[in-house]
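Cross-check.
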Amino acid sequence: MYYSDTTLLKVDVFYTRLMLKKVEQKKAYESENLISDIGGQLGLWLGLSAITFGELIDLCVSMGRAALDKCCDRKLHEEEKQGSESDIA
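Predicted model, tokenized:
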């Protein structure tokens, strides 16, 4: 230690334990895992959308068939009425 003439106080510092604590930080969520999870979620939601899209097409086709059947039934009934009126007259 270096002492000079103006030194009035000497301080000695002692550690109670001579132990070194090493702290390491690691990523809790790696970028590969993030990309994988985003891809999984997109696949899940887009898959569900495709199924829903297919169901909507099926619904439209069913409604179109029902409307077509109803329209054709009216034409058949009108033709039957006209045929029966001509038979009566």
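The mean pLDDT is 81. The CA atoms of residues 19 and 34 lie 38 Å apart. Passed to J.P. for a second look.
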